[in-house]
Amino acid sequence: MDRATAARRAAGRVCLSLVALASIVIWAETVFGQDVPYTGVVTEPMVLVRPFTGKTFYPVGQLNQGDLVQVDEVTFGWYKIVPPAGIYSYISRAFVDAHGDGKTGSVNKDAAEVTAAGLEGPGKSYRLQLKLFAGDTVQIIGEEDSFYKIVPPQGAFVYLPPGSIRRATPAEFKGTRFEDESEADLAAPPKPEPLPEVKLEPMPVRETVVRRESEPGTPSEADPHVQLFEPRPAETPIDDSMPKAVSTAVQSLEQQMAAAMNLPLEQQPIERILDAYETASRAPDLPAVDRQIVAARIAQLKRNRMLAAAVIEANKLQQQIKQSQAKDYRPGPTVSRHYDAVGRLLASRVYNGQTLPRLFRLVEPAGGRTIAYIYPGAVREPARHVGMIVGVVGKGGYDPALKLKLIEAKQIDVLEPTGAEPATPAPTTGAAGQPQPQTTPDTATDSAEPTEPAEKTAALEPESAAVEPDPDTTAEPDDEPFK
User: Fold this and answer.
1) Which tens digits make up the pLDDT trace of 86-117?
2) Which of 153, 175, 278, 288 has minimal CB crowding within 10 Å?
3) Can you give the pTM of this predicted structure?
């Protein structure tokens, strides 16, 4: 693979990674930049509710046109909503101790899984919604096999497909529970009992690595046409427009959130803070203002988690590009200014040293066009360089007797060994327009020369119909002697 091809491929990979990263960022800002939560109204006659984004997930219920829902977030265009009435969850009966009337129960173990209840029963209801902990209370609707059907706990959500709802107007949710919830969010909350403070362990900050300038001969310096993308550490500022938290626990979380946002995106302890906010969201006596703050922070942290994954992926692609570029890179021939001609050296079949002088043919590596014929002169064993790209130092000019551009070589230097991929010369045609036979450089023969019998070309007399001169070496008006 030549340097130009490697450069184009590397540049293509960089462009693709940048486009993918930009698309993810734009999509994330569009999705998470929406004003959520809000009350929505179903716009389709009938829409299936699913436990996650995608129509491959089993349905858990259906809604009709005009039904109101509480939209918590928009993910991949899907509306993440609070489960409306008639949609339930499952939890194993072994994890719940039912109370006297059997309508409520207490979870008896930590990390008890709650799944979205599908229309076909617990056997096909596999989508995990959340995990409950010992002491959490659930509202029991009934029993199915070894599971309790329960009211979805706080923090459980279901999804509606893109375009199935729109934002409801105040007139549409007036007089419903959604109006009461909106008013509760705006009302001044009573001073709550302090919640237990959630402490986070500090994340170790990795050292900043300062890159040295590229050393001579590295791909980045050898090929200036490829500029590698260096992703800068992304920082996400804290949202100062958020209302002030009331409870001590949320105030502490806000402080730690602000400290984390000063770190580069990929170094932020997103999972720990997200888990702490989700834990705080399940507190039953959380004030309405704090609940709004917590919901907004959870959405922001999920966005940051996705963006951090995109940055990490871009860094991986960048590293792969660098490794691929370093692997594909091969320095080209270094052409010194003192060479009188540079090209691939071939052996001549006509001027083979038998009836005509022993000459070698120098051709362009890419197209196979003849540059000049080389007379070995003082150079010993020039045949060992056949098939290689060489630089020739010597005295040259146009030989009228041989009708050739001729260089009497004083020195032949190998610039590129035979191991490099030689370009296949383009087919040449004779005087009658018939293609001449082609050979590769290793055959040590000149494929563009005529193959007339030696007796017709003897005595160095002017070329005639017996020997057709090479079309690339025929004297042209600009054939001046070499200087």
Assistant:
1) 999 999 999 999 999 999 999 999 999 999 99
2) 175
3) 0.38
